[in-house]
Amino acid sequence: MTASINFKRDVLPHLIAVLVFLLLTVVYFAPVVFEDKGMAQHDILQFRGGAQEIMQHREKTGEEALWTNSMFGGMPSYLINTRYPGDLSGAIHTVLSLNLPAMAGNIFITLLCGYILLVTLGMRSWLAIVGAIAFGFTTYNIIILEAGHNTKSLTIAYIPMVLAGLFYTLRKNLWLGAALFALGLTLNLHFNHLQMTYYMLLLVIVWGIVEVIYAVKNGTIVELLKRGSILLVAAILAVGVNFGRLATTAEYSKYSIRGKSELTAPNSGDKTSSGLDREYAFNWSYGIGETITLLIPDFYGGGSSTPLDKDSETYKAFVGMGAPPVQAEQIVSQGMPTYWGPQPMTSGPVYAGAIICFLFVLGLFIVERRWTSWLVAGTILSLLLAWGHHFSAFNYFMFDHFPLYNKFRAVSSALVIAQIMIPLLAMLALWRVIRDRDVIKELDRKLLMAGGITAGICLLVWLFGGMASFASEVDAQLLQAQYPVDAIRADREGMMKSDAFRSFAFIVLALGILYFYVKNKLSATIAIAGVGVLVLVDLWTVDKRYLNDGDFKEQVIANYFQPTQADQIILQDKDNYRVFDATNPFNSARTSYFHKNVGGYHGAKLRRYQDVIDRHISQNNLEVLRMLNTRYAITGDQKQPVQRVPGALGNAWFVENIEKVNTPDAELEALTGFDAGTTAIVDVTKFPVQEQNYTADNATIELTTYEPDYLKYEYQAAQAGFVVFSEIYYPAGWQAYLDGKPVDHLRANYILRAMQVPAGKHTIEFRFEPKTYTIGNTVSLISSILLLLVIAGAIAYGFKKKEREEAIAV
């Protein structure tokens, strides 16, 4: 028996859903879609700065530059801007996102994947649209776009599709589900934000444990193992499609700050030898009390820089202090530090929605335990992880012992699990109310209980929230700057109470709709539409606090990268050298857009380079700047915007002395007080050097060809010598050639390349040709073809054959 397609029943509802999502997206991001505007997303601007050299090389040659010298002296481009032509999944994403501009496409695909998850559960289309809105417009999805975390956003967006594939494989059609799972995981991995994928994996583990327990209880463990093995194959295929990206990332991580430190200096108790420093990783920990922002968005004052209006107490205080009204309005409209929570700073709260939280609590009472057990467990795990050092006993154990967990920072991001679990259980609860109002006993009482709990919390905050101190660590600085701190605290209190009453009102309205539906006073269509509109209005209006039409400007990239006077002065020098931006050396990649930068901005720079930053560059060690061929420093002084760095050593030079050390600690320490022009420091336990006297007399070397991943030098020396190159040593891909023949090179001065060279006139070349990239692309291409075949085969099978298994009731 073949399956027949009824357009009105099987296709039209989904087309309508896509049109609804498209409409919501283009309305929210109208300036992006219709006016070609953008916004100053911090991380995107830093990405463009760091990627400029790579993009220019690609445009000029059509080839990938797998190395760039535009940041931190030089680093692989894998985590900056590298294309993997073997991975064809990017084209699938383009189709699914309708090729919408960035940000708009992110939210559209989030809505679409949320819808796919709910439809696979069996929900009606209109109900799934409501759930998709809850998934898509949670504030975190909007806030991370404002910050420029586009790849994080897209990785999160595909998590519901992965879950849809898992559910469909385990509960319904094996082959269609496995194909959907493979596709979802492929696209999730494609955007290479492995921290978000890691959180998803933790969630899947929780789900898997629950499924195993129920399979043992129901005697279906063999069937579960069979379906699980198919999922494993699908996961391997998804990894295969992304193998090039994952392999190069894994290789690089060993040498980055995410990898093991080679230094043996005693740790302070909060460091790790195989990952990030604990303090760095847990710096952004969500406060335990701050969790209530899931229900009341501005419970802790919203963001660290919140625009206020003329009705604010802060505005009135500035006027009272003598500021002209226009000036006072301008000051408060630029943003006040209303956030008073425990994080160093934040762009805004993680708000799941008042109605969604109400429905989540309702789900605890009416949704089957097989669902609530893992959804609640996943939510609790998410909260515990996000609390970070506020719940140190658990989280430090995880950080020190759980595989790979110490590679990730900003643990507050773990709330992405909750922002998927909470809407999912909420929609299961709403579905149960709509579907089974005549079956569930005392449903009206349970509705009132859930509403009473959530609305009651909001009411208590509204009535008694003023008992809090509303004090922040930043207040001391504000007092020194003569800001009206008492007024700012009053505004913090007002924001808390206002949002508490706001959430209370939304819960009461949604409760009223569902209560009248249960009492047969409203139809299912009106109930779904009413709740859906309330959910949309609730989330949309809060989202607009953090990303609205006023944030979008014309020519954002072009305006940000207008060359300054300092840039123009330096760019007159057409030689090959580096620049040190003393105004903001290690937290901005703007300088990298124009110059080869000693600094830059990246969350995974080389660990050895970070060691040198911490111990020497930040301590103004001139010899280190000299060996990095730092010719110019940007001072930030209007009278003298550029300063020539004395004694820059050039692209390569001959040295006379080898200072031998036996440990990385000694190698790093030796950079203090040495003469970089005459001495090279070598760890001879790793790089044995010949015992001989070197001389730099009558020896010259010149860089004759420069490309990001290819360097050519010509040198002439009367006798054998030792050359230090002002290039960062990285063993996984750089190969040296002497007169066209491969030769070994070594590391000197902790971070640079060096080579023992014979007398005479010779050519030295360095080529960056990592085998991992080449092999990875081949594996990715083969896996991409297999994935497309699997998807096509599964779709054909799903529509031409009757399902072999009976769908298990949700």
TrEMBL record:
One protein family per Pfam: YfhO
Q: Which domain of life is it from?
A: Bacteria
What keywords tag this UniProt record? Membrane, Transmembrane, Transmembrane helix
Record keyword DNA damage present: no
Question: Is the Transmembrane helix keyword given for this protein?
Answer: yes
* Membrane-spanning parts: 12-34, 98-119, 126-145, 151-169, 174-191, 197-216, 228-247, 350-367, 374-398, 410-434, 446-465, 500-518, 525-542, 779-799
Name listed for the protein in its UniProt record? YfhO family protein
Lineage of the species this protein comes from? Bacteria, Pseudomonadati, Bacteroidota, Cytophagia, Cytophagales
